[in-house]
Amino acid sequence: MIYELKNRLKKDVFAKISLTIIIIYFLIAGLAQFGLIAKNFDKIDYNKSYSPPSAEHPLGTDYLGRDVLQRVLHGSRIAISVGIVSSLIAIPIGVFFGAIAGYFGGKIDEIIVWFYSTLDSIPGLLLILAMSLVFGRGLYAVYLALGLTTWVSLCRLIRSEFIKHREREYVLSAKALGAGPFRQIFVHILPNVFHIVIINFSLRFVYSIQAEVILSYLGLGAQDLPSWGIMINDAKVELARGVWWQLAGATGAMFLLVLALNIFGDFLRDSLDPKLHTLT
Amino acid sequence: MLNYILRRILYAIPTIFGVALITFILFNVVGGNPVYQMLGRHATPEQIKEFEHEYGFDRPLPLQFLFFLKQIITFDFGRSYATKQKISKMIIDGLGPSLSLAVPAFLIGVIVALVISLVCAYYRNTIIDRITVILSVLGMSISILAYIIFGQYVLAYKLGLFPVSGYRHGFGSIKYLILPMIIWIINSLGSDVRFFRTVILDEINQDYVRTAYAKGLTARQVLFKHVLKNAMIPIITALVLVVPYLYTGSLLLENFFGIPGLGNITVTAIANSDFPVVKAMTFIGALIYVIFNTLADIFYALVDPRVKLK
């Protein structure tokens, strides 16, 4: 699987550029996390409030004289942390419930399907808003709300794959050799359906980033941190004064990351999902 | 058939019960008693008691849940913390503005996207198709916040083509709704075109298309008479599931443009931690979704004889 991916990646220029951009964002996020770059993102300097872009401040400064470029870099740390942490919550839930529902069938399947179709009936953004409201405002609430709501689509896909795989010969032979249900699920079937997890990961990453920006914009997400949503919220009133750099920085950074993830996600789906090969 | 429809309707009941249970757990158990949030930290014991009694927080949880079920059946969700208005009245008042933005924007958006994706399918694998796909991906990657702020600032504020924000009831609302509608359509265009195009191209690879060509039909006839008809099945099914989202309109569009619809009510309620309003909006959103999901399944069974009626 990985070998084939590498081969296809060599031929696809767009996917290669996108992957590079994604890696750069992750590096920036990691370096900002450990305070190696953009250390002074919170340094206030009233004398420099709203300075336009210059050599010292490539993206200008905001109303408190804070450097916008450093804040944009820190914003990517928040966006990426939301993508990663919410995935760490959602993917295990989705895989586990999807696997046992698809493998065992019967009553267990009915209960799990009932539960996720119920959860899925609540319009996504409303549920995420409601959850982050009751968990209390802040980044942790965003992690939890996104993690606990976005596992359903993955769970569905995994379940239907497990239904197909559980009767395949390789599983039956593992069973004949004495493998228990959990060994069959996690050691034998799961590696064969894992590409779905990877495709889903790239899609949900985009969704998490967009949701985090909207939540922070509405005042539910990160508090007192330079999230892109908060920067956009600050920037919309500055626009009338001709201060465009904060808006440009935050939306531009978000656009580039989401675009790269979209293109790379398409590449992953086209390469890993054999059903869709005919469709390009 | 009738049997199938009845069974499908009965099947919706446990889902609606589940939604009520999840909403209840979220707001009454996890969210808990918001008395301090509402009254501040210096509330007197009497005030707290009165508040708890008014909103039923002094009763045991099972009774609170039964009370919520009663609220659902009678469509009476109590009063808002912040404005003390009746929530059912707020919802009825907000429905008009929301729908007058959402319904035309949705319909026009779908038609525009469908036309573009048919053109794409007609010219598939040419430069026109490629450019459209690239533009769709670019459009999908721009945040709706960017569209809104740019539209409001440049088109309304700088160029004065539209009012910056506001709303009038009745036909006077049209001039306030045009810009939000344009933004809605542009924002949804990218993903719609991509989805419709994929569905249409999927149909083009089917055997019946080859047969149609073989009997001498032109590409245009095949595309519009045969492919479009079959492609409409997945497209309409997907669109029916989007309809429930229309009821909140767009949270952000309504908020930016000062349209007093349900989306705006929700955003305000979130800002005020107005739990009962958010709770009612969440439940009703889910209820509409379940109804439309049931309708979509029934529609599917009616138009596609391949659907198994078991």
- The fraction of residues assigned to DSSP E strands of chain A is under 5%
Query: What is the gyration radius of chain A calculated from CA atoms?
Result: 22 Å
Average pLDDT value of chain B?
85
**Helix/strand order of chain A:** HHHHHHHHHHH
Give the tally of β-strands of chain B: 0
Determine the number of helices of chain A (DSSP H or I, runs of at least 4 residues): 11
Helix content of chain B: over 70%
Structure class of chain B = mainly alpha
Sum up the overall morphology of chain A in one term: elongated
Structural write-up:
The complex is a heterodimer of chains A (280) and B (310). Chain A has 280 residues and is an all-alpha fold. Helix content of chain A is 73%, strand content 0%. Chain A starts with a helix and ends in an 8-residue tail after the last helix. Residues 276-280 of chain A have low confidence and may be disordered. With 310 residues, chain B is an all-alpha fold. In chain B, helix 1 runs antiparallel to helix 13 (275-303). Chain B starts with a helix and ends in a 7-residue tail after the last helix. The chains are: A mainly alpha (280), B mainly alpha (310). The interface between A and B is large, with 41 and 47 residues.
